Inverse folding.
């Protein structure tokens, strides 16, 4: 059967993608950010999955205020890189895994989660920046990707517990797929940041690191944190962190298995106007 072998968590700051694309990653300011992913790039080579189920949020690229799905799964064979106003990033197109994606959609919907099935969409920096951070600048991404877009832009947004429970449903869906497929699940976005208003530029180191601690040790307790705390402590855009709970909910220990192994943890500020967080957890099975 298919299996989830690891989860990866990372910020998806658009300026990070721009720094890579413009060759600024060796500059002193950015070097400290990218150094935190040196381990991860070797790790992904040594632990290359067949498919990455990548949880991210669309930034008014594939979706607009006309249509705002809470959860949308990409079931296409490929996904073009979006033009977010200054041309598409110079990265490879994303190859999908339509058969597995369709299976997950069917299983998760049968578990009473409503998903929007998307057969054509462009993917923006929310998805491509994590790929670049983990894989560098290859001519082709080394694995297939199932994009999973979550609305954390326009309220109402899903609760942390809803996301955590969804992760559990995704794990069941993957494990019911009758092929030997190595799957990783990635949760992206965050950490603390606010892009507008009097608190623009907010970064909360203490809260961010406590979030990482609880994500590792007490994910279900963390899932009970409400929207107001995210906004108060992590800024208006800090709500993106609920997407990390989808990935964490899909890990084996949540279903009674052994605790995951923490392979890597990294935190750095600033990167543009936000904090960067990164974590790799491996299932022990």
């Amino acid at each position: 059967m298919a299996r989830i072998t690891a989860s990866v968590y990372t910020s998806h700051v658009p300026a990070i993608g721009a720094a890579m694309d413009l060759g600024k990653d060796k500059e002193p300011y950015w070097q400290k950010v990218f150094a935190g992913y040196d381990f991860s790039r070797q790790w992904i080579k040594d632990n290359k999955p067949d498919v990455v189920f990548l949880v991210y949020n669309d930034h008014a690229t594939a979706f607009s205020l006309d249509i705002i799905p809470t959860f949308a799964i990409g079931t296409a064979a490929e996904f073009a890189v979006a033009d977010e106003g200054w041309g598409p990033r110079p990265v490879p197109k994303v190859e999908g895994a339509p058969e597995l994606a369709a299976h997950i959609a069917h299983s998760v919907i049968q578990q009473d989660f409503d998903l929007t099935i998307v057969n054509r969409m462009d993917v923006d920096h929310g998805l491509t920046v994590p790929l670049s951070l983990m894989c560098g600048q290859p001519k082709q991404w080394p694995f297939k990707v199932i994009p999973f877009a979550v609305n954390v832009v326009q309220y109402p947004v899903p609760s942390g517990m809803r996301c955590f429970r969804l992760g559990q449903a995704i794990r069941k869906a993957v494990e019911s797929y009758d092929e030997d497929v190595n799957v990783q699940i990635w949760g992206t976005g965050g950490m603390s940041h606010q892009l507008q208003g009097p608190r623009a530029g907010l970064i909360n180191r203490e809260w961010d690191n406590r979030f990482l601690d609880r994500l590792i040790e007490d994910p279900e307790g963390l899932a009970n944190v409400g929207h107001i705390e995210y906004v108060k402590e992590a800024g208006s855009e800090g709500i993106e962190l609920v997407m990390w709970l989808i990935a964490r909910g899909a890990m084996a220990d949540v279903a009674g298995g052994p605790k995951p192994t923490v392979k890597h943890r990294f935190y750095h500020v600033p990167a543009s106007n936000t904090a960067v967080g990164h974590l790799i957890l491996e299932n022990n099975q």
